[in-house]
Amino acid sequence: MSMSTALIPTICSFIERSWLPRTCLLCGAGSRYALCEPCLAELPEQVPAEEALAGAMPIAGGPSQGGPCAAPPERSEREREESARARPAAQSVTAHTLWRYAEPADRVVIGFKYGGDAGVARLWAARVAGGLPAVDALIPMPMHAQRLADRGQNPAEVMASALARHLPGRPPLLRATKTRMTARQQGLDRKGRLANVAGAYRIDQHLHGMRVLLVDDVLTTGASLSAVAEAAFDAGADEVSAVAMARAVP
Ligand SMILES: [Zn+2]
Predict the structure, then answer these.
(1) pTM
(2) Calpha distance 145→151 (Å, rounded)
(3) Which has fewest Cβ within 10 Å: 61, 88, 98, 185?
């Protein structure tokens, strides 16, 4: 197959998604966007739209040891625990969410995550951007390479790309790495979730002096976000906040 032939399905799919009339994800009515205006207006909003995340460990701000040129430290599990205990008063991570993960917003989020409709991410980004703090970079919640290969795309990365367009200075996307496969969080209680993801993420870039925004699809207990926030502080971030599409309230 020639290169040009290989590109045709991609181009067709792009044109289809961008230009052709489409239908609302929820009601099937003709709509210019992923959701029609009436359905969009009916999505349950999350009130309050922001909350402090209680971290897996006491999450504290401030750059880690070493100057701006020092490599991010390689640390063992025990060293990280000791460092977390040695930190000053916990600095919380504020998480922002737009919708409550309830009917019919749950169907919208699932349609986005498994159907891959980036139009949902664009609608969400346009609405949530105004309430966010100024940031220097976005970090989508990473998926393990194996899961990413199965899924084809990381929903959080699609969201972060859409969101960056609406933020001042169009902050870059940086990458966190999921260092090991973790069990699915569904079905675990908060303690189990925290233990499941502790130390499962790594950020290899320097974040000294940076304000970073973590991006995730659904916020449940915040255990995974807290674990990535911990990695961001370890990499030197000054401030860490988070944003999600929807908040699942147990
Ligand atoms: Zn509709």
Answers:
(1) 0.79
(2) 10
(3) 88
